[in-house]
């Protein structure tokens, strides 16, 4: 059975006081919640990982990085390695988020190398894939997503079942737009078909989650789709009431 994942991407947000408040409110809302097949993951700016790791205690939360270097050490100013994320308590890391692909010119090949580095450090990479509005409207969506996945799968070879795929239609990130649930399910089903080309086991084992203006209002219906295994939450993860509602929707669905 595939794990259900709710992932909070805080992006460039947070401070010491905000972090303490969020953990306190999440603790109150999630206290006593236990589920062996559900995981709730916070991905704050790397500078706050140590603080959050110390605050979380017995709360059913995990930590993840927002990015990592493809390198393990060396003269790479400003980079954060997988080993560093691991030491700060991370179990997951985002890889290839659309904002990094676009603003930092991260290629499919670089994203694949970062995913490989994450696995080598004992982290589970959450590999982000998705299309622009132009690519969708011109009929290139499937080809774009397939190339993004294939680059990673070919690089990882036998490790492919150890990853998570996050589908994030770029045109729906931070815009207030959300892919219709049928559109999201269609792409998730397509992604699972691409994974099936590598192995049936991988297609059944790999969690594929949806990101793109996820809110408490649309989370329940998205989570009811057969190929959507969780959610990647942006802005709504910075509001404790919204994020708690999303988490509870996940815990109470299928």
From TrEMBL:
Enzyme class, UniProt record, top EC level: isomerase
Pfam families on file: TIM
EC number in record: 5.3.1.1
Domain of life of the source: Bacteria
PROSITE patterns to which the protein is assigned, alphabetical: TIM_1, TIM_2
One MF annotation (Gene Ontology) recorded for this entry: triose-phosphate isomerase activity
Active site: 97, 168
Quaternary data: Homodimer.
Function statement: Involved in the gluconeogenesis. Catalyzes stereospecifically the conversion of dihydroxyacetone phosphate (DHAP) to D-glyceraldehyde-3-phosphate (G3P).
Protein name listed in UniProt: Triosephosphate isomerase
């Amino acid at each position: 059975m595939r794990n259900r994942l709710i992932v909070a991407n805080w992006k460039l947000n947070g401070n010491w006081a905000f972090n303490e408040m969020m953990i306190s409110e999440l603790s109150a809302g999630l206290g006593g919640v236990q589920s062996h097949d559900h995981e709730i993951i916070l991905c704050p700016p790397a500078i706050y990982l140590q603080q959050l790791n110390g605050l979380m205690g017995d709360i059913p939360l995990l930590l993840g990085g927002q990015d990592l270097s493809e390198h393990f050490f060396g003269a790479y100013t400003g980079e954060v390695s997988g080993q560093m994320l691991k030491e700060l308590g991370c179990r997951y890391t985002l890889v290839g988020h659309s904002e990094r692909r676009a603003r930092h010119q991260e290629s499919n090949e670089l994203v694949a190398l970062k995913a490989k580095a994450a696995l080598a450090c004992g982290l589970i990479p959450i590999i982000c894939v998705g299309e622009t509005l132009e690519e969708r409207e011109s009929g290139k969506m499937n080809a774009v997503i397939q190339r993004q996945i294939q680059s990673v799968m070919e690089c990882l070879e036998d490790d492919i079942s150890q990853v998570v795929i996050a589908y994030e239609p770029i045109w729906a990130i931070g815009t207030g737009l959300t892919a219709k649930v049928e559109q999201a399910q269609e792409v998730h089903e397509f992604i699972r078909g691409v994974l099936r080309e590598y192995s049936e086991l991988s297609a059944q084992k790999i969690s594929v989650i949806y990101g793109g203006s996820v809110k408490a209002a649309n989370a329940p219906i998205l989570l009811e789709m057969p190929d959507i295994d969780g959610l990647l939450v942006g802005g709504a993860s910075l509001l404790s009431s919204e994020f708690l509602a999303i988490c509870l929707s996940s815990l109470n669905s299928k």
